[in-house]
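Exercise: predict the fold of this chain.
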Amino acid sequence: MSNAAKTLADRAATEPTDLHKNFAAWLKEQTGVDVDLKTVQLACSMRHDFQRSEENQSHLKDRKAAAAKKKADEAKARKAKLEAQLAKIQADLAKETAAVEPAEKPAARKAPAKKTAAKAAPVAAAEPAKAPEAPAQPKARAPRTRRAAASKTATPASK
């Protein structure tokens, strides 16, 4: 018998505490199920031991791997479905464009003969590129001066 099993067996042999009794009563009140007090005690006290056990960790790893495989399979299925839809749309588009284009294509036109250097019209020599003119600078304005307003108290000269 291993040390951990002995410890678990020793813990299972103990009497339920007030917490276990209250929890069992609460479960019955909430669910209507008459639960076994010893089962409640074992579930409460050994839950963490079970969670870290090798058996549970192996089970969790297998579940995680199965979930990842399922997700990858679903992604492949979605991709295949989308590719099939794309192929159908491309086929429909090809049919529509084939119906719009004429069945026989007109014969290709003959390309016009290129002019030879002797027959070509003389081309004037290109003028050298002019430097762009600088934009005209606006004329400087004379500074404004403030005129003194005529005084309101001043009276015109009398006659």
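Check your answer against the key: The mean pLDDT is 82.
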